[in-house]
Amino acid sequence: MSISVISTAQQAQGIDFSGKTAIVIDVLRATSVITTALENGAQEVVPVKTIEEAKSLFATCDTSTTLRGGERNALKIEGFDLGNSPLEYTQERVGGKTVILTTTNGTNAINNVKGADEVVLACFRNAAAVADYIIRRLPRCDSPTDDAVGLSYHGSRDVVIVCAGTEGRFSLDDGLCAGMLIELMKQEAEVETDDLGLLLSRFYNESKNNLLNALSGCYHLKRLFALGFYDDIKFCLQTNCVTAVPLLESRTLHSRIVSLQGSDR
Ligand code: MLT
Q1: Is the Cβ atom of 106 under 6 angstroms away from ligand 1?
Q2: Over the stretch 39-82, which tens digit does the pLDDT of each residue have?
Q3: What is the pLDDT of residue 140?
Q4: CATH hierarchy code of domain 2-259
Q5: Which protein residue has the closest C-alpha to ligand 1 atom 6?
Q6: DSSP letters of 177-214?
Q7: CB distance 31 to ligand 1 below 6 Å
Q8: What 3-state class would DSSP assign to 158?
Q9: What are phi and psi of 170, to 5 degrees?
Q10: Which atom of ligand 1 is nearest to the CA of 107?
Q11: Domain map of the chain by residue range?
């Protein structure tokens, strides 16, 4: 399996993702929020790029079962039901609901990889579940006869990890999580990475015992800390505590993210 890493949502724009599996990471905080919402029973999360899109989509929905969430400048958008703190996305609040979400970088990155064969969302909280999901979808051997013997293969061997970044710049929290994913997948499969993937997996190996310490000085972390979101940071840096694997499905006009939990995969 080959894994390459893209450092920002903007860099993903214009790349041809066909034939590839894209894993989008926005640790602080969009993919942590989406994973938490789905883990807590949200029926679906619809990621949209702009506030206007969120508002016009909401206008077409059953407003008793739909919530608008997201942020601009890390703060809740005026008139929206939820901000971008994963701690807001409790079972009581989002259980059974559709969440229309727009964030500065995360939902942008998701929308920029729509051409991929499959889009999966990752964060520290579901990293092991995502790695497991990707590995289980690999063919059991590289033989071209796999399909013929019934080992049908759904995922792509070529994985591109897209770090959402912050305001067009690489963000270390996303990179550290990319390194963790690569290391987890290396434990189960033969993996080749590009140089950025190599660097990030080495960085993760050196840092895995203290993620918060490894991220000290990280621009987005400092910004969230200054805004008082320390509990969010702690929550987003917890590893392997949930099993939701958000997948983007493009079957409808508005892509939906669903949890694998309870499905047959
Ligand atoms: C984003 O998608 O830009 C981030 O999730 C921003 C934030 O932390 O609120």
Answers
A1: yes
A2: 999 999 999 999 999 999 999 999 999 999 999 999 999 999 99
A3: 56
A4: 3.90.1560.10
A5: 74
A6: HHHHHHHHHHTTS--EE-HHHHHHHHHHHHHTT-HHHH
A7: no
A8: strand
A9: -60, 140
A10: 2
A11: 2-259
